[in-house]
Amino acid sequence: MEGEKVNRREFVKATMATLAIPKILVAKQRRTFKVALIGCGGRGRGAVRDIHEAAKLLGVEVKMVAFGDWFRERALAAGKEYGVPPERCFGGPTAYREVLATDAEILLIATAPAFHCVFAEAAIKAGKHLFVEKPIAVDPVGCRRAIAAGEEAERKGLVAVVGTQMRHDHNFILTHQAVAVEGALGRLYGGRVSFCIGHMFATKPINPQTPDDLIRTWQNWVCLSGDHIVEQHIHNIDVACWFIGHPPISAVGFGFRARRPAGDQYDFFSVDYDFGDGIHIHSMCRQINGCWSWVGQELVYEKGRTNGADLPKPRNSPIQPDVPRAQSPYVQEHVHLLYHVLKGKPLNQIRGLALSTAAAIMGRISAYTGKMVTWDEIMGDPNKNPALYNLQLKPTPKDFEQGTVEIPQENIVPVPGVQAR
Q1: Phi then psi dihedrals of residue 196, to 5 deg
Q2: Torsion of the alpha carbons at 114, 119, 124 and 128, rounded to the nearest 10
Q3: Which residue of 79, 235, 310, 370 pairs with 89 in a disulfide if CB–CB is 3.0 to 4.6 A?
Q4: pTM for this structure?
Q5: The pairing of beta strand 188-197 with beta strand 32-38
């Protein structure tokens, strides 16, 4: 009898294995997306991990096919980790062109912000779907260039997802639907947004001598990062623009450099954004140790207030029921990217990011100059204030590519009312 039991058990195992074969074959036929990365630092490598996690949630696969970075050794290290051969790991100022010449379907961009609009534009021209980190640019010219690239992506039916991760967070999406779309809290009166933290990045003078020195320490230089109001505080400014539904009409701000030992950025900014209709948002950001810290946003309505994610329940959810929910908004960005590519649904998130980036830039310019800066001056009317409308921070991405970089002076910053930039 015991022998019969064993035989039956083996029979069942063999039968189940046979029945499972079609499922295994189906699994092996899952769609595989070919992905490339430009910018192999910490954020870029993080994006690669995130898109792999997103692929698991969607039941698809991703295969890394190329890496590019200003420093080729970083690209080679990433390639070694993901099995990409050295001949597909590129370095130098034209690495992005070589990456785009590969068979990658999706491009991830996580370089210094100054290059984002240039690389996104090139990716769209090459017909690639893309994810690009925030902010999209560091000056008004770059923002308008990005908007035009996003429009081209729409015409080509491409998917362009951006790294303002709160727009990908389900709690934020549902709260936005309830408050901004359905009016659950009534009329918006005003609010505040903040990114006040301790000191970040270089703790002693950098003394840059070459473009390599600038790229290696890009977080400390306005020409590459846009200053921390643009590079970091963009998240909170973006939430305000998103919930209000449009960018501010003007900005009046101040700030300065108090304790930063390196680069050419300010330590703090305080900006009053006027969104029209009596709606003002106070923006504050600071990177100084030993001070009060708060990162977040608070919007005040006639029937209550919200931090953007505290879920007044919407009547209708804008989230498609077949979109998986990731535990991390960083992964959710890539869920949305792969979902739209998989479904063949074009998506252009570049415009929204460009408008929020321009709002942050408007605040920076106001603080640097001590003057009110209007949306029309930087984005609307080329004749109203040509100096601001045509502002390009130098050295530009083109300078880096052509080898015409002039090294900025360290610890020299604009003085409001005296020396502007």
Answers
A1: -105, 115
A2: -130
A3: 79
A4: 0.92
A5: unpaired
